[in-house]
Amino acid sequence: MKVVPLTSARRLHSSSFGLILVLAVGSALRLIWASDMEWKADEVWMYDAARAIADGRQPWPGVGMMNSAGFPNPGLSVWVFALFACLAKSPVALVRWVQGLNVLALWLAFALAFWSIKDRQERSIWLNGIALAAVSPIAILFSRKIWAQDLLPIVAVLFWLAHSRRDCRWGAAGWGLVGALIGQIHMSGFFLAAGVWLWTVYGQMRARVFRPVRWRWWLAGTLLGVLPMLPWLKTIAVASGPSSRTWVALLVPKFFAHWCATSLGVNLGYSLGGYFWSDFLPSPLVFGRPTYLVGMAHALLVGLGLWALIRWVRAHPRPWSDLVKPGRTPLGLDLRASGVAVGALFALIGLPVPLHYLIVVFPWPFLWLKAIVPEQDWCWWLILVSQLFISVAFLALIHQTGGFADSDYGLVYRLASTQR
Question: Quick one: which of 156, 266, 293, 362 has the most CB atoms within 10 Å?
């Protein structure tokens, strides 16, 4: 039995306590000011559809709303909200379910990593990465909407839990089942399921060191998960409409740019548009004067990210060759599956990747950043505190202004609902 030195044990417990505190703060930021949620066409459509189904005024649909790829989503994307609407009688009550499930995803992932990962280095990457996800500005933004994509983190955690136990019957069956269902919540889930499957097979062929897979049980779970989307398959088989596929997506793989920006927390321009530059970066205001502290936090994060990436590239003389290796540990295999394989599938199929498609690879961009950041504690805590500061400033700006009607965020629910 390996004895851990007392000083190391104290440091481990102290670090874990600090990360748990970060998770608690991130959970609170997901839950506060629920009526400040976005309330645009997608959110209104989803709430009205869920309310109509729950009240019996509309049958359970075979398909959901149209997506950016030019065809409707599967019906499961609406069914989940209809189930919530049976208990939630208002938009704020409905978004509470989304917020709560995102909080649950954080704590479940943290607990599973703490108790099940034995390697101290891998466990540290997991725990710190989940803590970063807790305070990430874009992760907080995507946990406060009546939007099918915002349900992906909790499903992704269950997906990775099952995949990690693919050598047993329940794990393999669960991997297949959740892999089939996650794409029915949002199309990006199909890319996750396909990318992980391909990389798992590739890893077994190349490395031959990973746990075996109960493939028959995986197939059984997959077939079971396919059943709810049969009406959707029938619909899209005869549907015709515009396609968003483009060869530009192959030449400009936005997935990887979004991956880096998401991990650093510097992409709230997606939501704020021009107000990101005119109102957000100069904030907060002190006595009516801009301090530009938010802008300085962004600059600091970009600088630290570039520094960490350059150090990683220098430490790997053949970075691309190292990336396409399956990985010698479960962390290496899964990180490459979610990053390299999923991103390559998006590019090869030619789909432009909006930022919200990155929700499906939760929590891997944050784990990736922790994996390449140098070991110095001060550097990592600087990243955590900077992203926390940006998140608080963003929520405060939205609460004070009520949102921006001509930005992606729009007016908050408490204001927009009165104009409906």
Answer: 362
